[in-house]
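Hi V.,

Quick status before I head out on leave. The structure for the redesign project is tokenized and pasted below; the design run finished overnight.
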């Protein structure tokens, strides 16, 4: 089993009052990828990190094997969600993948 963790910050120009709805849409659409992307087993979206955090949100996914990370990244359903609901609003992406 492989875990793929991604964190982002909101772009500075995104108004604070719009952020809760954007987070809701990100979570809903990223979670919808389970069952659509081969090898993707679970999706957890962290929208309310505690104040010591360095990022505004995180995605924690579980995949069957390491090769599935590339499949997930290139899958048309994932690309569509990322392009519509994540990339336009976020910056400073950080990623960590590990087996366990």
């Amino acid at each position: 089993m492989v875990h793929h963790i991604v964190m982002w910050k909101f772009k500075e120009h995104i108004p604070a009052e719009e952020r809760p709805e954007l987070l809701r849409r990100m979570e809903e659409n990223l979670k919808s990828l389970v069952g659509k992307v081969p090898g993707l087993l679970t999706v957890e979206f962290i929208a309310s990190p505690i104040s010591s955090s360095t990022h505004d949100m995180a995605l924690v996914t579980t995949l069957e094997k390491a090769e599935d990370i590339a499949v997930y990244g290139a899958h048309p359903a994932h690309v569509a969600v990322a392009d519509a609901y994540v990339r336009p609003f976020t910056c400073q992406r950080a990623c960590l993948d590990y087996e366990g």
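Above is the designed sequence. The chain is about 30% helix and 35% strand.

G. will cover questions while I'm gone.

Best,
W.
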